[in-house]
Amino acid sequence: MAVSVGIVGATGAVGQELIRLLHERNFPFSSLKVLASGRSAGKEIRYKDETFIIEEATPESFDRMDIALFSAGATITKTLAPEAAKRGCVVVDNSSAFRMDPDVPLVVPEINPEAVRDHKGIIANPNCSTAIALMGLAPLHQAFGLKRFVACTYQAVSGSGVAGMQELENQIKAWSEGKDCPPETYPHPIAFNLFPHVDVFFDDGYTKEEHKMLNESRKIMSMPDLPATTTCVRVPVMRAHSIAIHAEFEQPVSLEAAREAIAAFSGAELCDDTANNVYPTPLQFSGKNKCGVGRIRIDSALDNGLAFFVVGDQLLKGAALNAVQIAEEVVRLQA
Ligand code: 2RA
């Protein structure tokens, strides 16, 4: 069954990956509209030998459109996504606008694909650090029953879009030329630096990014009371997020069973052979669909605890790939 598809926010880093993935995964689209703000209307996007002319996203853009993949800011999404849904177009939204709305399923297809069935026109894609962390946590939860977790992230600048990637590149270039390049996207220089600050701070001292990982993990895994705590850190890495996780489980754990669970999970690649310096790294997992999981060891501070390291491409499993996988599930259910 061929469907008409639109991408809202086509000019961004995630938008570009959406165009590529829809083509490379042979998504069954009959037409593909690329939409953005009025500022970009009329500009061209090229993918191989195809040229797409960007149209301004308006409510009428969604007339006769079957699926819209949104990768725009939460404010524009809050206005346009309900307009699209009203017109019978299924929205897969990458922003935080609807993720915690009880009427909107929040989906990671490897974990809760059944939630897609409950949509009322909008389906939310999780935040990147959550989706990537869950590629390690979910299979271990299935194996041993998750009780609580502590996560520390090392987040790439791609999480701030093209502007973040440009800022890192510019600062490294300026440094190599002995020049100054003051921060614009971030509160501090990102080249040769890092800071425990991703998104805005809340009154409880956590950041919005840290809240997202707790709340979204609970919703996706249907564990509303799951205790978890996180520290999210921005690092000078271009496009893959890394996450160190310490998790406690209900049942006794073993390294062998943990490795088997990771190896059998479709979203993960077991990358765990320290004798040969094998563990996942951001360079190795940039551009990969699967997330790498390694450094699996018995956590010495927890009961039935495991410590491990997960790495995933922020623009792929952390955004565009998960959105396209959700859209594939929508098409599968409609067929
Ligand atoms: C970041 N999580 O890395 C955000 C992007 N969604 O900044």
Automatic annotation (TrEMBL):
Positions that bind phosphate: 99
Pathway listed: Amino-acid biosynthesis; L-lysine biosynthesis via DAP pathway; (S)-tetrahydrodipicolinate from L-aspartate: step 2/4; Amino-acid biosynthesis; L-methionine biosynthesis via de novo pathway; L-homoserine from L-aspartate: step 2/3; Amino-acid biosynthesis; L-threonine biosynthesis; L-threonine from L-aspartate: step 2/5
Keywords recorded for this protein, A-Z: Amino-acid biosynthesis, Diaminopimelate biosynthesis, Lysine biosynthesis, Methionine biosynthesis, NADP, Oxidoreductase, Threonine biosynthesis
Reactions catalysed: L-aspartate 4-semialdehyde + phosphate + NADP(+) = 4-phospho-L-aspartate + NADPH + H(+)
Pfam families (UniProt xref): Semialdhyde_dh, Semialdhyde_dhC
SMART domains: Semialdhyde_dh
Active site: 128, 241
Residues reported in the UniProt entry to bind substrate: 155, 234
This enzyme's EC code(s): 1.2.1.11
InterPro entries linked to this entry: Asp_semialdehyde_DH, Asp_semialdehyde_DH_beta, NAD(P)-bd_dom_sf, Semialdehyde_DH_NAD-bd, Semialdhyde_DH_dimer_dom
BP-aspect Gene Ontology terms: 'de novo' L-methionine biosynthetic process; diaminopimelate biosynthetic process; isoleucine biosynthetic process; lysine biosynthetic process via diaminopimelate; threonine biosynthetic process
Semialdehyde dehydrogenase NAD-binding domain span: 4-119
CDD domains: ASADH_C_bac_euk_like, VcASADH2_like_N
Residues that hold NADP(+) according to the record: 11-14, 39-40, 158-159, 314
Keyword Lipid metabolism: no
Gene Ontology MF terms in the entry: aspartate-semialdehyde dehydrogenase activity; NAD binding; NADP binding; protein dimerization activity
Keyword Cytoplasm on entry: no
Function text: Catalyzes the NADPH-dependent formation of L-aspartate-semialdehyde (L-ASA) by the reductive dephosphorylation of L-aspartyl-4-phosphate.
Subunit structure comment from the entry: Homodimer.
Family as reported in the entry's similarity comment: Belongs to the aspartate-semialdehyde dehydrogenase family.
Name the record gives this protein: Aspartate-semialdehyde dehydrogenase
Organism: Oceanipulchritudo coccoides
Record lineage: Bacteria, Pseudomonadati, Verrucomicrobiota, Opitutia, Puniceicoccales
Gene field: asd
